Amino acid sequence: MSIDSGFRRDLAARANALEPRAIVTADHLTENVIETVRSCFAHHDLVKVRIHAEDRDACDAAAGEIARRVPCEFVQRVGRIVTLYRPLPAPAAEAGASDAPPDAAADGEALPGDSGDPSARRASGPANERRAGRSPNERRTRRVVPRDDHGAQRVRVPRARRERRG
Prior knowledge:
Strand content: 5-15%
Mean pLDDT: 75
Helix content: 25-40%
Radius of gyration: 27 Å
């Protein structure tokens, strides 16, 4: 399994928001440690692993060993944290059984309230009717909260309270 550089870059961008799910030591990669990393891949396709190692070379060697034994694909290493990728297994489709309700439109029947035009469905409804009279700039404006020099919200104290503080 090999991933191309564009996909690798996308995976690295997704990994920015992740925290390490496993913490391992470079010189103690036992089968239990490998099984822990495998269990992380049961629910996630992208996993970060923190490796406690003496130097960069030991960390790279441990990451390669983990990727080989799990098996998964090495995405990147930042410091002592490596990102590993393995696609999630596709759910097993059982002989035509599905949890989704059957689609009435597939039988040629129109769904209730469906005119067949997707743009007509988007334009109807009370929320869109409320927005209809507004200009594009009015829809995009939002309330600006006053902030102090440090970025914290300024709280306005009513004049009566300011005078009591005295």
